[in-house]
Known about the structure:
Layout: H1 21-57, H2 64-75, E1 83-84, H3 94-104, H4 116-127, H5 138-147, H6 154-170, H7 173-183, E2 185-187, E3 190-191, H8 193-201, H9 210-218, H10 233-249
Parallel strand pairs: 1-3
Antiparallel strand pairs: 2-3
Helix pairs in contact: 1-6, 3-9, 3-10, 5-6, 5-7, 9-10
Amino acid sequence: MAVKKPAPKKTTASKPKPRTASKKSNRSLGEKVKWFFIKLFLWFFGLSIGSVIFFKYVPVPFTPLMVIRAIENKMGGKEVYFDHDWEPIDKISMNLQKAVIASEDGTFLYHNGFDFKALQKAYKSNERGRRIRGGSTISQQTAKNVFLWQGKSYFRKGLEAYFTVLIEVIWGKERIMEVYLNSIEMGDGVYGAYAATEHWYRRDASSLTAMQAAGIAAILPNPRKFKATGSSSYINRRKERIVREMRAVGKINYNGK
């Protein structure tokens, strides 16, 4: 009698486990975030370089500081006073150009945007607990005034360094000085050489004497507190020192030739 063999067991091939939806969505989200930041950086570099090129030829109409000061005065219940007119550098007294170099940045004509010796001195002075002092050059101040906000964070300082390099490369020294003298705060609601000379001396920016130019430069650390005329003894001493240092500046040659 034939013995019936048992039927072989059916074996099923193991199917690969389908990827979960969460893994797909995580990878998709990660790629979206990566591309978002890549696009953000590209937009930032494009807009920042484009704006620096644009303001190489076009007068700067206003700065973030002007807007901030107007908001502060409005919220403080003060009169919102704003005086700012653009003046080409060839119509701004050479005395004022020398005065701000003597007062703010003695190596302006020679550095590439940063005065590392001044930064080191400022760091040591602040570390010893003395009155906080800065080591910013005219180039750094211009970059901050035109493109950024006020503040002391490392992020803002990093952006300041970036824009300083851009304006040094794209603008050059003469344009930096022109923009600086047209955008710097020179009184409460007073911005730029044209408005400042009219406000303090009732004359045009091209006819400033050495002492008058030194008076404007002397108040730049705090132009809303100090006065260029009817000054305190502290400001008068600063004026005299600046006039002496203006002689050491000598002839200004922005082309470096």
